[in-house]
């Protein structure tokens, strides 16, 4: 086979030990704590003829098996065999204390330490690229990122604004982004309308802080910082684009309202042919296709066309969002192979090998 070395830029290995004990809601705890219950409900749903629900609950059960895991390495043990042997995975931790009240068995520094130990373990070292994460309002938050970079050898930072902070939070702007830029390390941020939300946050605020536009102050202040807005705007905005399109008379405002279009325009730049209004291009903005492209049949033709734009083709990263994808019909392996065939070997190698290496700071842009 080819000398392809895939880098999957977006996977998770956090476990029940990193989730607050009272998440998602005290009443729902039986579902979280007893995976067998979901399975029993799946059986029941099928028995009474609700087939779609039965299948969905089955997949939810598959995801719960991962969430109920207590060791991150166990999750990697199930992920690694789905890919060619040389594949590397960018592992993104989560700081989930704002999600719910209750105790977290392994607070963030311990989650980081466990990931660092895996990255040092000869059985995993060749596969794992560890990232740090942060909850900027936590005491000593920036110091913990610095410890991850300087002492644990972590390779980048994961953000999740809808857990309760804007991307231009002062701790990030004053301490964290300067450090990442200085060390030539990338940042990745959850950017879709879905996902978990901090319990103090209104839906409107969570959405505003997750949006591509929320990153403009960061991109303006740190033009050399490589920022990936994950999920390429998310499934909902892809679906809206596919089904309803974008008003061609709406100018930049209408295009920015769809996050998929917004991210493309912010990467390539855009000029309204009629009014001359422009969207500025950001030279170090990236996106990944994780989770969103698991809706394969509907979305992949659009991705193929978008990638004909040379600038965009150099800024899209392959990622999957394992193990969130466990709730989808297609396996990780099935999507990866379909994508490889649909895009062709050359374009697949670009988004899965070359672009991740550039984004990680391992090589210069070709
Ligand atoms: Zn994710």
In short:
With 366 residues, the chain is an alpha/beta fold. It has 16 helices and eleven strands. Strands 4-5-6-7-10-11 form a six-stranded parallel beta sheet. Strands 1-2-3 form a three-stranded parallel beta sheet.
Keywords, separated by commas or semicolons:
about 375 residues, alpha/beta, TIM Barrel, 3-stranded parallel β-sheet, binds zinc ion
Written account of the structure:
With 366 residues, this protein is an alpha/beta fold. Helix content is 44%, strand content 11%. The protein contains 16 helices and eleven strands. It has helices spanning 29-33, 35-47, 51-67, 72-79, 108-120, 141-150, 170-182, 203-210, 216-221, 235-243, 251-257, 259-268, 296-306, 310-313, 332-343, 345-359, and strands at residues 7-11, 88-91, 128-130, 132-133, 157-159, 187-192, 227-233, 270-271, 278-279, 285-288, 316-317. Strands 4-5-6-7-10-11 form a six-stranded parallel sheet. A three-stranded parallel sheet has the order 1-2-3. It has a two-stranded antiparallel sheet with strand order 8-9. The radius of gyration is 20 Å and the shape is globular. The two termini are 23 Å apart. Bound molecules: zinc ion.
Low-confidence stretches: none
The biggest beta sheet reads: 6 strands, parallel
CATH superfamily: Metal-dependent hydrolases
- Indicate the mean pLDDT: 88
Succession of helices and strands? EHHHHEHEEHEHEHHEHHHEEEHHEHH
Shape: globular
How much is the radius of gyration in Å? 20 Å
SS-based class: alpha/beta
Ligands bound, unique: zinc ion
Proportion in helices: 40-55%
CATH fold name, please?
Answer: TIM Barrel
**Count of separate DSSP helical elements:** 16
In CATH, the architecture is: Alpha-Beta Barrel
């Amino acid at each position: 086979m080819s000398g392809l070395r895939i880098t999957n830029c977006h996977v998770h290995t956090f476990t029940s030990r990193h989730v607050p004990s009272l998440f998602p809601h005290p009443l729902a705890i039986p579902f979280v704590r007893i995976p067998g219950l979901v399975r029993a409900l799946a059986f029941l749903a099928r028995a009474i003829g609700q087939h779609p629900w039965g299948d969905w609950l089955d997949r939810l059960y598959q995801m719960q098996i991962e969430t109920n895991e207590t060791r991150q390495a166990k999750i990697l043990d199930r992920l690694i065999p789905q890919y060619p042997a040389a594949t590397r995975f960018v592992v993104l931790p989560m700081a989930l204390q704002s999600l719910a009240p209750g105790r977290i068995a392994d607070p963030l520094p311990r989650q980081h330490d466990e990931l660092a130990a895996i990255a040092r373990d000869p059985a995993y070292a060749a596969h794992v690229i560890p990232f740090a994460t942060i909850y900027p309002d936590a005491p000593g938050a920036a110091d913990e990122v610095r410890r991850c970079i300087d002492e644990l050898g972590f390779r980048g930072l994961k953000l999740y604004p809808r857990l309760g902070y804007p991307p231009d939070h002062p701790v990030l702007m004053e301490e964290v982004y300067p450090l990442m830029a200085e060390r030539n390390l990338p940042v990745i941020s959850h950017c879709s309308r879905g996902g978990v939300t901090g319990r103090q946050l209104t839906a409107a605020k969570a959405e505003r802080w997750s949006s591509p536009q929320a990153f403009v102050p960061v991109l303006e202040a740190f033009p050399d910082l490589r920022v990936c807005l994950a999920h390429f705007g998310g499934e909902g905005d892809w679906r809206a684009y596919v089904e309803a399109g974008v008003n061609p008379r709406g100018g930049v405002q209408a295009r920015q309202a769809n996050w998929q279009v917004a991210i493309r325009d912010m990467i390539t730049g855009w000029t309204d042919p009629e009014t001359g209004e422009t969207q500025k291009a950001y030279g170090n903005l990236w996106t990944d296709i994780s989770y969103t492209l698991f809706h394969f049949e509907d979305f992949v033709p659009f991705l193929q066309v978008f990638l004909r734009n040379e600038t965009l083709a150099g800024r899209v990263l392959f990622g999957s969002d394992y193990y969130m994808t466990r709730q989808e019909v297609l396996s990780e392996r099935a999507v990866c192979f379909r994508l490889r065939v649909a895009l062709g070997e050359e374009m697949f190698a670009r988004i899965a090998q070359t672009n991740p290496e550039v984004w990680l700071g391992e090589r210069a842009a070709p």
